[in-house]
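User: Need the bound-state model for adenosine-5'-diphosphate:
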Amino acid sequence: MSEALFEIAELPEFPDATVCVRDAFGVDADYRAPAFRQRTAYVPEVDPAYRFDPSTTMALVMGFAEGRRVLVQGRHGSGKSTHIEQVAARLNWPCVRVNLDSHIGRIDLIGKDAIVLREGKQVTEYREGILPWAYQRPVALVFDEYDAGRPDVMFVIQRALEAEGRLTLLDQNRVLRPHPSFRLFATANTVGLGDVSGLYHGTQQLNQAQLDRWNTIVRLDYLPTEEEAAVVLARAPWMQGGENEKLLTQMVRMAELTRTGFAAGDLSTLMSPRTVICWAENYRSFRDLEFAFETAFLNRCDEAERATIAEYYQRAIGRALHPDGTRPWRRAAPGKPVSTA
Ligand SMILES: Nc1ncnc2c1ncn2[C@@H]1O[C@H](COP(=O)(O)OP(=O)(O)O)[C@@H](O)[C@H]1O
Ligand SMILES: [Mg+2]
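Assistant: Bound-state model below.
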């Protein structure tokens, strides 16, 4: 975690403006959400191409407005993490994301005593962890990949969730009160029942008592075809217009086939919207659709599932995949002069 995070920025204490959800998120509701007038250090960048899911948006907006704890659940790449960030970005709400999937431990969350040099002497000083840091500031803290958190981390979070209105730092003998504008969110691939699909390796079973502490659990799924194509198009503008745009719709269809196949148990890997974006990017780089597809997706799939995927490919794209993989380039003939251009 970067040191800069712990430099205390001058943050405005309370929302001092409102934002109309119809204008800001395209949700058909007459609700004005509290917001900050000023953009400050921890406010995420606005992504103008982001498409808000109306129900998830309203759940998150209420999370910000009323301090409800919202857990967003959904398959990978459905846009959970960015959804929270993009709501924060529109409300100018400072937002800090902690990925529990990484090697985050209890100490990173809570903080620790560190030995520092002060006027030539060694002294012990308490360094605040991310949790107490955010807890006392007008900041939305997002626990990303919540179901992948290590047990020691989950134990700390459980304490924070249980204590209505205070956080006890046992090692420090301190009791903290939350800042009135502190907010808590989380994202998860599973609903804490552990991983039945085998897809989300490393996820933990969540304690039901702990799940109970989340006021709102929303499910975010993949977008309908046209909308997903629009999202990819915004990220891959070279696919705009004519044949390319038609091709893009077929690429999204291909992704959908892998998701249906996954749900039916025919595939163990699926294409997320991120994979489709990656495919379009590789296509731009390599100018070969099949090689782009193989490098973006196929080469990380189970060998035994290649035939199924080839069949989907034929169905969605109308072309055959080479059983041994595409090799668009040949070795140059020896003795040819090296180009210096
Ligand atoms: N509704 C959407 N609008 C625009 N981009 C999206 C949307 N959903 C997903 N994406 C894009 O897909 C990628 C994956 O999103 P992410 O939030 O990391 O997913 P998750 O946290 O669910 O795994 C990001 O690049 C994100 O911008
Ligand atoms: Mg995520």
